[in-house]
Amino acid sequence: MTAPIETLRAGLPDRYLTPDDIAEMFGVPLETVYQWRKKRTGPPGFRIGKHLRYDPADVRAYVTELRRVDAEAA
User: Fold this and answer.
1) For residues 45 and 62, is the Cβ–Cβ distance under 8 A?
2) Phi then psi for 12, rounded to 5 degrees?
3) First to last CA, the chain
4) How far is CA 37 from CA 5, 50, 51, 53, 70, in A?
5) CA distance linking residue 53 with residue 67, whole number of Å
6) How many Å apart are CA 46 and CA 22, to the nearest integer?
7) Structural domain of residue 66, as residue ranges?
8) Is the pLDDT of residue 5 over 60?
9) In terms of Cα–Cα distance, which of 74, 73, 70, 58 is closest to 25?
10) Residue 28 belongs to a domain
11) Of 21, 25, 24, 17, whose CA–CA distance to 66 is shortest?
């Protein structure tokens, strides 16, 4: 039995997120997450050695900004 994941800010895990986490959260293929990174269009990520990670606060800010832009366009 695994321990429950601690959560922070609207259900986001209280740990750095992996590309797999981002793909699952947004319901997109993993390759899309890597394309976002390459094109600098998705949530900002950073490297820890060779590993790509995302700060949950940055992901929340990214979603908030998308929602704001979408609301203005409507």
Assistant:
1) no
2) -75, 145
3) 46
4) 26, 14, 13, 11, 21
5) 23
6) 13
7) 13-73
8) no
9) 58
10) yes
11) 25
Nearest to 35 by CA among 47, 46, 27, 23: 23
Confidence of residue 11 (pLDDT cuts 50, 70, 90): low
Tell me whether residue 38 is in a domain: yes
Tell me which H or E stretch contains 52: strand 51-53
Quick one: pLDDT at residue 13? 73
Pairing mode, strands 51-53 and 12-13:
unpaired
* In a domain? residue 1: no
3-state secondary structure 54-65: ECHHHHHHHHHH
Is 39 a residue whose pLDDT tops 60?
yes
When divided into structural domains, the chain yields a total of: 1
